[in-house]
Amino acid sequence: MAKTQPQPKHNSCTKFVFMITFACVVGLACIINLASSFSLYSTYLSITSNWVSHKPPFVIVPKIREDPEISNKIGDVVLKKKKGHTSDSKRHLSATFADLPAPDLAWEQMPSAPVPRLDGSSIQINNLFYVISGYGTLDYVHSHVDVFNFTDNTWCARIDAPKYMANSHLGVASDGRFIYVVSGQYGPQCRSPTFVTYVLDTHTRQWLDFPPLPAPRQHSDFRYAPATQLWRGRLHVMGGSKENRHTPGLEHWSIAVKHGKALEKNWRHEIPIPRGGPHSRACVVVDDRLFVIGGQEGDFMAKPGSPIFKCSRRNEVVYEDVYMLEGDMKEWKVLAPIPKPNSHIECSWVIVNNSIIITGGTTEKHPVNNRMILVGEVFQFHLDSLTWSVIGKLPYRVKTTLAAFWDGYLYFTSGQRDRGPDNPQPMKVVGEMWRAKINV
Ligand SMILES: *[C@@H]1O[C@H](CO)[C@@H](O)[C@H](O)[C@H]1NC(C)=O
Ligand SMILES: *[C@@H]1O[C@H](CO)[C@@H](O)[C@H](O)[C@H]1NC(C)=O
């Protein structure tokens, strides 16, 4: 059994110093913000209550999905603009967040997960799907793994997580038996990340300890939603954001692993990732190449001085970047961008027929009302041509959904879904499971 516990003394000291620094920085930022742009500040205020609010929004996003004509017009406008014509800036902006034209898939609803979850993680090992922790609500986080069996389509097991394991925004990777759970956020609302890392042996269903991430100073690093993957016998961890949940980290570490154990004492520094950021990137290894897809800079963070670390939304930049490492890992290659900026997709991908399939996510905020906009498309990245296509629509737009592939079917479960076909803003946290046959 896992024995590691974060040292509370060190923890609270770090937290205290951090809170003071943080309060100063945020105070200054607010003043600058107020002085330079009142409208930006008021947007921030109105958004803070938006995340899990079930109230209808004040501003309704245009019904782009309902009208394919609008999408076509947007395409025209963008094209004309490229040729040097002036155009309506509102329409041009619209192209970022609008639904893309996509074929329908025949979705079939399957048994829901035992609990709804947001910002959870998942690992598929053959016919078993391990769905890990996450938020139930902003004030309640899970601390267990639910297991789905694709052979008989049932939720067949529950495994409790170690007491001090993070509850959301984990970095996860698996070798087909052991599941590595790196860092992540400990506790509800917008609490800080933890530095502890654990390994689940799926054969014995026991948790093992693992060396925490290194840090420049004497103590261990905290990382929130880092991109994590196993590659060439080493566990790679990169990016994510730092203690305050918001500041992007560019670090990239690796450590040799075998059978759930570290083979080295220390993590090794690898080539830093070109863009940092918490959350939400798909990190995939296939054919001895490592891909990092999408992501964002900035995220919700704790309201200064809030005793419960209440989440408040900050400026986020969602990106469409796709990077690849291969060969001697000397440089990141920049590949074709995703068809739209996309984040909250860390466990929303599967590998099928020499391609990476990605389900849902979040894209750039609405350019006018600044609301968070969810993604409802299924994207395919072709590993031979390194190009993208849009291969389908989900039954609804959803972020941090957990994807799997079994016997010709694309599955997804959990996440936070939209407010309806006409409104791509986030609303309900779900545990629903869906599947559709795909042909790619
Ligand atoms: C999954 O379901 C199949 C068919 O019912 C069963 O044979 C198998 O033991 C199940 N696996 C687990 C781990 O429950
Ligand atoms: C994968 O490719 C094979 C061979 O072309 C095809 O028969 C199969 O249907 C494809 N699978 C999916 C899920 O598209």
From TrEMBL:
Question: Is Membrane found in the keyword set?
Answer: yes
One Pfam family, please name it. Answer: Kelch_KLHDC2_KLHL20_DRC7
PROSITE patterns, A to Z: PROKAR_LIPOPROTEIN
Keywords of the record, alphabetical order, are:
Membrane, Transmembrane, Transmembrane helix
Residues crossing the lipid bilayer are 16-41
> Mind telling me what this protein is named?
Kelch repeat-containing protein
UniProt source species: Hibiscus syriacus
High-level lineage: Eukaryota, Viridiplantae, Streptophyta, Embryophyta, Tracheophyta
